[in-house]
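User: I'll paste a sequence; please echo it back and then give the predicted structure.

Assistant: Echoing your sequence first, then the prediction.
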Amino acid sequence: MGFFPDEVIQQILARLPVKSLFRTKTVCKLWNKLTSDKYFIRLYNEVSSKNPMLLVQISDLIESKGVICVDNWRGVTEISLDFLHDRVKVRASCNGLLCCSSIPEMGVYYVCNPMTREWKLLPKSRERPVTRFYPDGEATLVGLACDLAKNKYNVVLAGYHRAFGHRPDGTFKCLVFDSESNRWRKFVSVQDYYQFSIMNRNQVVFVNGALHWLTDSCSFILALDLEGDVWRKISLPEKVGSESRSYLLECDGCLSVIEISDVWMETWVLKDYYRDEWHLVDKVSLRCIKGMVPSIFPISQTREYVFLATHKQVLVYHRNGRLWKEMYSVKYGSTLPLWFSAHAFRSTILSCN
């Protein structure tokens, strides 16, 4: 390997899976040094960010059965969250990190990197027990914002406020954990009562320094600017109709909405973030998978392909070749629908501590 400059070696190693990358550290002192410096970590994360995957927590009504990661390059990989030593539910995913909530103990949250098996138990906020989220005490929205450039992340818990013994008054409470200060901050605003489906809650998108959720009525996108702790609304494309299903995703750093009707799947991208300027970038017929259309849900995408989940399958659609392919299928019948616990994912070596 003496024939190759260090920069070339780093470019090669930056395209390895995380587990293989860690093995290369034991090859020689030079490789260990090259894969440990800040430049390589930033390079590896940048390369990985261009390869979105799909992560599904395989579970039934009784217990979690593990996590699978579906990669367009390398296929299906099984990973485990057993290092958390808790029964957890994956609540959000961003740039290689996961935010998980404890199932046995309400209010306990973890941030972890499932590829490096590094994790952090978030400190509990100072909110009094009598101050609750409505309607069931749990935050309606859980978001994870991971900034690769600044090497920091935020966890957001947001929902309607209900003081003990009182009805909800339209107050929207938001708790934000900052990894740099290791503290929570809180701000309160007044919002109309919005509902969010399970898919709307799962498909939280972090772009332009803000977290985004699509409302259940698909009337607009609710965005939280994390720099100023300000909520704002983003309009959807005018042609997105009420008779179709809409889903919020990211596409190469931009907000994107995929609309699915009985016949078509249309992909819109927000080209101008501040002027709400949407462009239609892809339209594909669904006739060849007609029987699956009612139960198909887009989860993750790039300009080249889209990952979609059904009740028991994970599919990938290659846009350039107009080709559909099955990537994963459940082998047993007791699981919850795959789309119920599917998230967009990237494999990075970002630290959560």
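The chain is about 10% helix and 45% strand. The mean pLDDT is 86.
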